[in-house]
Amino acid sequence: MQSTQWIVASLVAACVSFPALPKSPVDGSLLNRIADQGFNHGEVVETAQYLADRIGGRMTNSPAMRTAEQWTQGRFKAWGLKNVRAEGYDFGRGWWIESSRVRMLTPRVLELRAIPIAWTPPTHGAIAAPVIVAPMRTEKDFADWKGKLSGKIVLVSWPAPLAEDLEAPFHRLDDASLAKYDRFKEPNYDPELDRKSVDRLLFRRRLDDFLAGEGAVAAATMSRSAVRLVHGEGYSYQVGMSPKLPQVELSSEDYRRIARLARQGEVKLEIDSNVHYEDADHHAYNIFADLPGKDAKAGYVMAGAHLDSWVAGDGAADNGVGSAIVMEAARILAAVGVQPRRTIRFVLWSGEEQGLIGSAAFIQQHLAHRPLPKDPEVAALGPYFGPPTYPLELLPGYRDLVGYFNVDNGSGKFRGIYAEGNFAAIPILKEWLAPFSSLGGAAVVAEPTGSTDHQMMSEIGLPAFQFVQDPLDYASTTHHTDADTFDHLRPDDIRQAAVIMATVLLDAANAETPLPGKPVPTQPSVTDPFQYKEPSRPQ
Ligand SMILES: [Zn+2]
User: Fold this and answer.
1) What's the rounded mean pLDDT across residues 307-334?
2) How many A from CA of 410 to the centre of ligand 1?
3) What letter would DSSP give residue 16?
């Protein structure tokens, strides 16, 4: 109790010491009621635990994700949110792992740490075959292995030696590291860079075709992590695009051991991949809930996180916790009984892990259209893959969204917010976060951050932001791995995050004038039109 009183007292003290605060639309007593509701009556820890422990990993369109779609809507309704709904969009197949086992049979019997790669087919019982180590990175490498792969389990990754890890596996941001985020890097437009991620995705598909055409029986990749962590990420979720071969990811220690033994003689593996496709409904769903505003013409502000996860762990830090924080902000604001000027909308995205598919579908349905890429192969990858295309066609709903706030950087407490190059918003965000300096959450940093659901909203000019969070062990341990479990969350951190999220949403909903957006983007000019590319070195 004592420490809580101290926090509330600190919040009041912080209010007094910041002269900018009187302009804030959230008056002090309301702020303190939000803090009291979040710190003393919070449910965010239980929400995160249910998503992680009870429902578990939530691959888009998997049975667990369907359960999560229902359960989260039930919670929103129980807390008194309105217009709770699921909005569908065309995604692709569901997929899940019932059981899987990979063993080395020769030169000795050994159970390996491995996981089937998402959306790869089942083995229909155990299959056993000798391995061949055949690292391939581009289509040019196929020629080296033609005619050598029939009847083999092909190890397609290069067995990179164990890297020396110089970063601490767990850390919080100090003032110096926060200051580093507050340096705006000017945008650099290089059309060739944009193409690289598309090429990587297309290569995976061509590799599968090549291996199947050569008569290989299965493929194995090496985990990019050490300490026997595995991920199982795969991207062939679209109908008609499922891989032909069963594929597993081996822990890096197991993969290197096999690669060493294969230098000395035959290594035989056994793979039993008991996985299932789900084809009853190819739509994925984003979940929405509203706290209706008093002024229907004033637009809405929105908070979001992705509910889907990867397959290996429980999706606790990525991003059950973010979903729980968004849900808790909704619960807090409903519980304190606020009636905001603008509607506050809460969204739990799907399809984020496959390329921000859920938020891209929302943009397509409500905000703006982009022309399809000219290359039909890139266009077939789905909306918004590849370089941005122009001109943007704005939909009537574009002007209604006057602020979007995302959370998806693991389970650390909020340290502030990324301003995403929205210079005009910086002083306003600073004012809104000022009460939270005593909780370490008041930094507004210029740097943009990407790879999650606010990104494309920011890219079409809307005031869309993501919170800065303490990294904890996200990068070293939990991100997309089988160690992404509830015990890596910190209850104090996520209560703090929910209180800040609720307050900022109310600030944005009640602000006199909406947050400034950026100009609607048009085709950028190439940053350095005279540069020559360095030829690649022989490997
Ligand atoms: Zn995520």
Assistant:
1) 98
2) 7
3) H
Distance 368 CA to ligand 1 centre (A): 24
pTM for the whole thing? Answer: 0.93
Q: Any bridge partners for residue 270, and if so which?
A: 103, 128
How many angstroms is it from 242 CA to the middle of ligand 1? 23
474 CA distance to ligand 1 middle (Å): 11
Strand residues in 177-262 grouped as ranges (E): 218-222, 247-250
CB 146 within 8 A of CB 214: yes
> Does domain 95-278 correspond to CATH entry 3.50.30.30?
yes
> pLDDT per residue over 426-475, tens digit each?
999 999 999 999 999 999 998 888 889 999 999 999 999 999 999 999 99
Residues of the chain with CATH 3.50.30.30: 95-278
Ligand 1 midpoint to CA 306 (Å): 7
- Inter-CA distances, 51 with 289, 414, 446, 474, Å: 18, 21, 33, 18
Residue 1 has pLDDT above 60, yes or no: no
Tell how far the Cα of 230 is from the centroid of ligand 1, in angstroms. 16
Listed in order, the ranges of the chain carrying CATH 3.40.630.10 are: 2-91+282-510
Ligand 1 centroid to Cα of residue 523, in Å, is: 29
Q: Which fold has domain 2-91+282-510?
A: Aminopeptidase (3.40.630)
Comparing CA positions, the residue from 359, 395, 388, 354 lying closest to residue 371 is: 388
Residue 310 CA to ligand 1 center (angstroms) comes to 9
How many angstroms separate the alpha carbon of residue 317 from the centre of ligand 1? 8
For residue 428, count CB atoms less than 10 angstroms from its CB and return exposed for 0-12, middle for 13-18, buried for 19 or more. Answer: buried
